[in-house]
Amino acid sequence: MSSIVDDTSVNLSVNLGKIQLKNPVMPASGTFGYGEEFADFINLNDLGAVIVKGTTLRPRLGSFQHRLVEIPGGSLCSIGIQNVGVDRFIADKLPYLRQFRVPVIVNIAGESVEEFARVTEILSKAEGVSGIEINISCPNVKKGGMHFGVDPDATFAVVRAVRNATDLTVMPKLTPNVTDITAFARACEEAGADAISLINGFVGMSIDVNSKRSRLGKNLTGGVTGPCIKPLALRLVWQVAQVVNVPVVGIGGITSAEDALEFILAGACAVEVGTYNLVDPWVMIEIIDGIRSYLMEKKISGLNAIRGTFEA
Ligand SMILES: Cc1cc2nc3c(=O)[nH]c(=O)nc-3n(C[C@H](O)[C@H](O)[C@H](O)COP(=O)(O)O)c2cc1C
User: Fold this and answer.
1) Is 229's C-beta closer than 6 angstroms to any atom of ligand 1?
2) Is 275 touching ligand 1 by the criterion CB < 6 Å?
3) Which range of residues forms the domain containing residue 84?
């Protein structure tokens, strides 16, 4: 498929805090490595931004085996935020990304508010980082392992600490595993978020009926991702976009331009593509081309004209 990503007759640019994206399509953290892994397939300059693997203060080995199983319409995974740690990210991974003219957003994780703040401080001093996406779907070790993202006060505390630690664009990423996601979106906005992304995976499980054990081994449960979650994610993004004033980034099961456009009509200003990168490494380029074609066909000059125009 020939790419028309450089066609300038339609304006696909959007702003996320201080970051200007040339188009609204980015990889979801953890499904695109550190960018280099996909560079044989696509030109990273064609993306709205590159969002890298979840990064913690120290390197992490991640979960036990098995980490990822296919399920109908998606995947179930427990990676346990395996990553090289913030210092090696800056020393070994960031220099490669600096050669591109694409904003780099670092997804961060931590076991305490202090860890989130420290990782942010370190990243803020590194050349070539434009934004921080906060993965709040992590256990708060000081609060008995309860995830930050399922407690509005803990969500507020993490986002505020990251906000105070940086002038970069701050984008908390919400978990869907809560009763009322709008309360969490409001807490993020009050704490000073520049944008909000959603969603991370739904907690799920899969049992091998012969061994009577989890298909994820000792991990027992994992995050459900991929096309099967798209209608659930779309509804949550629509809900959140109605209650906050900051830009909302839609994530969950996106595989095509039509999927991405659904999120934009529901109020998202940009999207992240996750699991489907593992199926089709060119999918994000096809989505950018498809969004552009849609706007050209409908004679619409820019994305702002369609964002949130879903008629309820
Ligand atoms: C293999 C894998 C690794 C992931 N790692 C991270 C991560 O490090 N940090 C994070 O915030 N989300 C992580 N996620 C969640 C994705 O970024 C995304 O929110 C989720 O997969 C839903 O999008 P999708 O349905 O398009 O995959 C991971 C997902 C997968 C499948």
Assistant:
1) yes
2) yes
3) 14-305
